[in-house]
What we know:
mainly alpha; two-stranded antiparallel ribbon; single chain
Amino acid sequence: MSEALVxxxxxxxxxxxxxxxxxxxIEHRFKTYFGEAADLPVTELPPPPxxxxxxxxDVVRHFQMGxxxxxxxxxxxxxxxxxxxxxxxxxxxxxxxxxxxxxGGIKGHQHSGFLPTGETAAF
Length: 123
């Protein structure tokens, strides 16, 4: 396999691992919000280790991203690389018959999935 393909594969694996971590963080946040789990700081759900030879990992290291910055980057990438991960943000507030305002985000017009905003990151 060529060196370029190895880097692409490592990048895909790194992104996949971090998207899985983002899914865990979002799931835990939802469980906390709806009273199904104890509130834990995001640092209690540590990110996976970064591989040495992935461009995504190089970006995270270059900008010295901490846990919160890494999560915001992943939220921005999720609609493009793993849109189904954000579907739970379409949860309907039964009291008002609409989505929860506190989740932030918007439903795209050309992209029918959930598009996170800064408010989503704050949630």
